[in-house]
Sequence to fold (288 residues):
Amino acid sequence: MRKKKIFLGGYIDYLNAQNINCKSIATHLDKNIFEVYTMRFSNNNYELIPGVSIFNCFKPYKISITIAMILGLVRCDIAYFPKHLDTPNWLLKFARILRKPVFTTVEMNMCDRSKLNLIDNFGDVHKMKRHFDLIPYVYGISKFIICKSTCGVKLQKNPLYLGVENENFFYKESESLKNIVFIGSLIQRKNIEEFFKLAKKFPNLNFHVIGNKKYLKFYRKINYKDDWENKTKKNIELDFLDNITLHGTLNRDNLPKLLKNMDLMFLPSRSEGFPKVILEAAASGVPS
Fold:
């Protein structure tokens, strides 16, 4: 029987929910049935996945990513493009010419412009709609996202749920509250300053920050790169206390080891879709 060829348009060595999902799909698809193609950044040391063909992107990344996507589309029978802004419309039109089925997932608020939203990411609602009109199968990752998508993009009736690899985490239940963790990029909408205020209010508890250690360790302030809300970049000074530990960015092996010692995850974001870290914390028995 001829194997089905699938291209996963994420970067499996770069940590965010979409890329982690691509890595999980690449790992768990039955290689007796599927041939899998995907991408990674060549400057990152990363363990190869048996049975998966990986394109090493190189600088300039804009060019190499385009080459990788064209090759993946030509080779595959079906393509998954989760990185909307990295996937140009001409590539989706090319997929139509080749008669290659394409699908994607929507993992955040699309239409409510009072919060972080896809309309602003694309520039306006018409650009967003033109993009998704070229994709025959658009899935929300939750029923809530599907119900709230009312700005002209047709989503499939049933969600394509996010998953988490339970076997990689250590489940336990805490009987006391000692360690509280924040996981995420240190960008403005994550509202990290609220986590530091909480640490100051409860000096007998331990607070752990996972993500972007360089902005905190050397400058003792956050250099916000996400200027969606205020339209201007700003720095926010944070009080560094003895009960705050900065762990930096952890790989997929070290994150479960740290989570097994946590009792609570605090996620003070101003806007989220369905954060994968909530599932990962739950797999470790840590409520959010």
